[in-house]
């Protein structure tokens, strides 16, 4: 069922309706039929454009991880404790550095997601 219809208006004029609601001004019947047909075709084509699923976006992000686990090995609890101890000896906290790094990484992720979505949008 088409959501774009052409309805009789006044005298010999017609109006284009989307979901039974008039849009735009009155047109002749032949002009209205042309516009209605074009809009319905455009809507079908737009619906046919593949949009990436959330899973595709996640897989793309995982593949582009610049810190693979086999190269950047996760620190042990003992190593974190030593790092915390060394910072504490100099009046510093791990939170300050992790917060700064977390913000930087978050912003890079948001930027990367934006780039990926733009690339997928045009496939």
Write up what this structure looks like.
The chain has 123 residues and is an alpha+beta fold. The chain folds into two domains: 4-48, no CATH class; 54-121, no CATH class. Helices cover 58% and strands 14% of the residues. The protein is built from four helices and three strands, in the order E-E-E-H-H-H-H. The protein has helices spanning 29-48, 54-63, 77-89, 94-121, and strands at 4-8, 14-18, 21-27. The chain has a three-stranded antiparallel β-sheet, with helices on one face.
Give a quick summary of the entry.
By secondary structure, the protein is α+β, with helices and mostly antiparallel strands.
Secondary structure blueprint with pairings:
Blueprint: E1 4-8, E2 14-18, E3 21-27, H1 29-48, H2 54-63, H3 77-89, H4 94-121
Antiparallel strand pairs: 1-2, 2-3
Helical stretch count? Answer: 4
Taken as a percent bin, the fraction of beta residues is: 5-15%
| Average pLDDT over all residues | 82
- Main sheet specs: 3 strands, antiparallel
Using the CA coordinates, give the radius of gyration. Answer: 28 Å
Instruction: List the helices and strands in order.
Output: EEEHHHH
- List unreliable stretches of 5+ residues: none
Number of strands: 3
Major β-sheet strand ordering:
1-2-3
Total domain modules: 2
What is the subunit arrangement here?
single chain
Global geometry: rod-shaped
